[in-house]
Amino acid sequence: MSVVPADVLPGSALAVEEPAACAAELGPRARLWPSLAAVYRAQLSRARVARIPLLFVATFQSIGIMILMRGVVDDGAEAQAVVAGSSVLVVAFVALNLLAQYFGQLRASGGLDHYATLPVPPAAVVLGAAGAYASFTVPGTIVTAVFGCALFGLPLAHLWILMAVIPLAGAALAGLGAALGLLAPRPELATLLGQLGMSAALLLGVLPADRMPEVVRFARDLLPSTYGVEALARTFGPHPDWAFVLGDLAVCGVVGVVSLAVATWAYRRAAVR
């Protein structure tokens, strides 16, 4: 009688399976849009309580600036620039300043390691956080714009353009804020850079461009929020030039795509370190 090892029998529990059968099948990769929606909802619910008081601060700050400027600027183009700049300043305060601080603290505390373990694309993390922060700016921007129009006697007919200005300017500023927070080596530096960016949006966006030196006007053209301010300010006139309005919004959109791409690259760079 011959002896046959048990592991070679066909019906044996110890039978050796083929390597292909032993390999566990991996689940499908997470798609961008469902991942983005999940990150957006998580960030929105997480930051709702903490960020609402800061949104009130941003709104009251912009309204206070308009009240101060009421006795300084004349009616017409200068008033349009002040109202448009103060409205977009709410977006800059939240999307640029607070997002730079958030990603700076997230990187310093090791929070990026948590996101790195999740099966979500890096772009979904950046876009979800940026979208959640930009969403907080909608009520404050609308309230600021309506108050400014009433204060300076500007028409309210074309304020619907805010539905394009807020997401496009918010995307450009949020991408810039996220990139600053992720590239800064320390959270204190990220906070400083966010504050400087918001101050630039305040000084270069609210003050009328006609009163600025040529060098300052050039710096103003480099600021992403400038084109959102220009697009909104053009709609306050009696006959808005919609071609220029669409051109300014297109620039905001292009800058938003570029800045969010840079922020995604900065996230990948910071997550692997």
What's the topology here?
Layout: H1 19-22, H2 32-70, H3 77-108, H4 111-117, H5 122-135, H6 137-152, H7 162-183, H8 187-206, H9 214-222, H10 225-234, H11 242-271
Give structural notes.
- It contains eleven helices and no strands.
- By secondary structure, the protein is mainly α.
- The longest helix has 39 residues, at 32-70.
- It is elongated.
- Mean pLDDT is 84; it is low at 12-27.
Strand content: under 5%
Largest sheet: none
List low-pLDDT spans: 12-27
Number of helices, where a helix is a run of at least 4 consecutive DSSP H or I residues: 11
Secondary-structure element sequence? HHHHHHHHHHH
Overall radius of gyration: 25 Å
Supply the helix-strand structural class. Answer: mainly alpha
Tally the beta strands: 0
Report the end-to-end length measured between terminal Cα atoms.
64 Å
* Molecular shape: elongated
Helical proportion, percent range: over 70%
